[in-house]
Amino acid sequence: MAGSVFDSGLYGKLFGAGEAGRLFTDSAEVRAMLLVEGTLAKVQGRMGLIPEISAAAIHRATLEITLDPSGLATATAQNGVPVPGLVAAFRKEMQAPEHAQYLHWGATSQDIHDTGLMLRLRQLLVLLERDLRALLSDLAALAETHAELPMPGRTYGQHATAVSFGSVVAHWGWPLVELVAELEALRRSALWVSLSGAAGTGAAFGPQAGALRAALAEGLGLGDPGRSWHADRGPVLRIAGWLARVATALAKMGEDLVLLTQSGIGELRLGTSGGSSTMPQKQNPVAPSVLIALARQAVALNGALLSAGAPRQERDGGAWFTEWLSLPQLCLCAASAVETARGLRVEPVPGAMAEALELNGGVIHAEALSFRLAEHMGRPEAQAAVKEICKRVAKEGRPLAALAGETWPEVELGGVFDARQQLGEAPGEARGFARAVRAL
């Protein structure tokens, strides 16, 4: 098995991450760091920190020169970070030492590495927002179409009261609506430029340090934090936490789909499913299972990042390396989860839902019966009476509706045993979710 399923020729399509996969390659990382170096030189030239002619030459060269990431491997192993090797290789390829000497002026490796990372994370969030909005549009249509389709609601895996399929879909989608709504604030609080020099003081830039950082932020379209964040991994952790929550929200849908498509329930049908090598009758919920697995991995990776969230002193190699091991995988977990969810085709099976509502003599209507009886007796007495009659249903094998009619002939029981009349706010929740999606 490959070291990562996302890079695997065998498993890559099972855990497909779509366009996001291209953001987490060695080539993409090198390109992002070169973009930072070129923009840094450009703004330094404009501010008179380096010769403007050299700044223009460096900026142009970062757009034209390509570096082979494998050629930087030895230097990266030696230095523990790819930037020194990248700077040396770029200066050599530029073949203009009088200009190349001003490359990386006053910056430190972490400035270039972290800022390049933020450029890629920015693009990741763009892709995820686009795909989440498309997924939400599909879920909204499904919820609205089936807002009043009754099915059993379950708590602790047992029948509770009737819900609507549309409300179940809405419960899958609401967390995603809120996650998309958080993105604007997340971008402001996390997509930051880093430019603080060797130990985070910006001393090499002199009194222009703050202005230079702001200019670099503007040139790259990132936020200016107004401070050093070398040893504050809050921006990374905020993005990582958001990604883990995306994967977890989608896993809720996956968990429900595994249960509702299983043999003996079959209240939902998947448009695509997997087969068994030996059992031709099997229709395995492969995609929902992928969602569950991705979320478990995402939660574990987010935990690893949190464990590295208190770096020692001004820079901590162990903490930083933990980010490199964990964050790209977490990003791809979230991207793969969204990609997988978008590929799902879920269809309700109304007949199976109707049959399930009448299982065990229709005792799913017990709560509705107790509230109707509470109009004629005390609530505790009504609950106790319904408990006793439910025992008779189990013992005698007769429907709850028949026994209730015989026991309380004086009570009007119309609508109590009609699930469509016992949905409460479920249809409204489904339609409210659809409205919220359209308003995003």
Structure description:
- The protein is mainly α.
- The chain has 17 helices and four strands.
- The protein folds into three domains: 14-107, Fumarase/aspartase (N-terminal domain) (Fumarase C, Chain B, domain 1), CATH 1.10.275; 115-192 and 229-353 and 424-440, Fumarase/aspartase (Central domain) (Fumarase C, Chain A, domain 2); 354-423, Ribonucleotide Reductase Protein R1, domain 1 (Orthogonal Bundle), CATH 1.10.40.
- Helix content is 60%, strand content 4%.
- Strands 1-2 form a two-stranded antiparallel ribbon. Strands 3-4 form a two-stranded antiparallel sheet.
- The chain is elongated, with a radius of gyration of 29 Å.
- The two termini are 41 Å apart.
- Belongs to the class-II fumarase/aspartase family.
- Keywords: Lyase.
Secondary structure topology:
Blueprint: H1 26-46, H2 52-64, H3 73-79, H4 83-94, H5 97-100, H6 109-145, E1 150-155, E2 158-164, H7 165-181, H8 183-190, H9 209-220, H10 234-260, E3 268-270, H11 286-307, H12 317-342, E4 346-348, H13 350-357, H14 366-373, H15 379-396, H16 400-407, H17 426-439
Antiparallel strand pairs: 1-2, 3-4
Helix pairs in contact: 1-2, 1-6, 1-9, 6-7, 6-12, 6-17, 7-10, 7-17, 10-11, 10-12, 11-12, 14-15
